[in-house]
Structure formats: C-alpha cells, structure tokens
C-alpha cells in the first residue's frame, strides 16, 4: 500500500490545504492527514475540533485518514509505516524552510518528502490570513469550506 502523510496545524483547514490533500489522494492509496499538537502555540480551535472539521471536509475522498501527532514527524511516520511526507509550497520562502526539514527528515529516518506546488488560486492563502479576514467580516468565499467559515465566524465573534 502506498501511504503518505500530509502534516499541518489546520487551524483552520483552508481550500489550499484541501487542494494538496485531494491531489495526494489521487496519487496514493492512503493519505494520513496528521494534525499537529503544539502545546507552545495557542490555537483557535482545539485538536478535536480541527480533526472533526477535517473529517467532514475530506469524507468524500474515501482514502483519507485523520490522525494527530505530537513530537517529531519522522517518529509518526515510523509508527504508522509511512515512507513519505507531502507538502504544499506557496512561494520560494516556503521552499527554503521546507527543504531543510525534508533533508533532516531524510537523514534521521530515510523519510522522503514530495513537494507539490500550490494551485495559483491559493498561493497567497494561509489559516492566519483567513482568521484575520473573517474577524473583520471580510469575504472568504471559495477560500475555505463553508462549514469552516461558519465555525470560524462563530468562534471569532464569541
């Protein structure tokens, strides 16, 4: 079975994330979306909320599994028999950072990294930017799933 992991914080999931996940789902038998548990970072949504949103918006694919991880991604890969990481690249600045991580992951555990260029429709998209726009009631139509938009608007207006 060809298995890959697509890691991230997904706080919240955007259509840019979903573009990479869906493209990976056509290339691999199973895509494990690993949601980062980072105790030093304050997230807007809890880990359970992020997992639930991802499960809902990826349900149609059939070969996506949502999981969580804390610690080194290569340890997660070892524990789940995953030989490859897939990452989306939006800009050259993403590449510089991700290349270093890919090289270290390969050195530590022999885990490969596949880079996918982001669809130009989403090249400027980030979860942080979506939070900022929704906070001020801006239009994010087509940038995040509608269900995510509703939950984001509710959370930011609390």
Automatic annotation (TrEMBL):
Signal peptide: none annotated. GO terms for biological process: coenzyme A biosynthetic process. The keyword Zinc does not apply. CDD domains: PPAT. It is found in: Cytoplasm. Its EC number is 2.7.7.3. The record marks 17 as: Transition state stabilizer. InterPro entries: Cyt_trans-like (IPR004821), PPAT (IPR001980), Rossmann-like_a/b/a_fold (IPR014729). Homohexamer. This is Phosphopantetheine adenylyltransferase. It catalyses: (R)-4'-phosphopantetheine + ATP + H(+) = 3'-dephospho-CoA + diphosphate. Substrate binds at residues 9, 41, 73, 87. ATP binds at residues 9-10, 17, 88-90, 98, 122-128. Belongs to the bacterial CoaD family. The lineage of its organism: Bacteria, Bacillati, Actinomycetota, Actinomycetes, Streptosporangiales. Keywords: ATP-binding, Coenzyme A biosynthesis, Cytoplasm, Magnesium, Nucleotide-binding, Nucleotidyltransferase, Transferase. Its cofactor is Mg(2+). GO terms for cellular component: cytoplasm. GO terms for molecular function: ATP binding; pantetheine-phosphate adenylyltransferase activity. It comes from Actinomadura rayongensis. The gene is coaD. The keyword Transferase applies. It comes from the Bacteria. Residues 5-132 form the Cytidyltransferase-like domain. Reversibly transfers an adenylyl group from ATP to 4'-phosphopantetheine, yielding dephospho-CoA (dPCoA) and pyrophosphate. Pathway: Cofactor biosynthesis; coenzyme A biosynthesis; CoA from (R)-pantothenate: step 4/5. It holds the Pfam family CTP_transf_like.
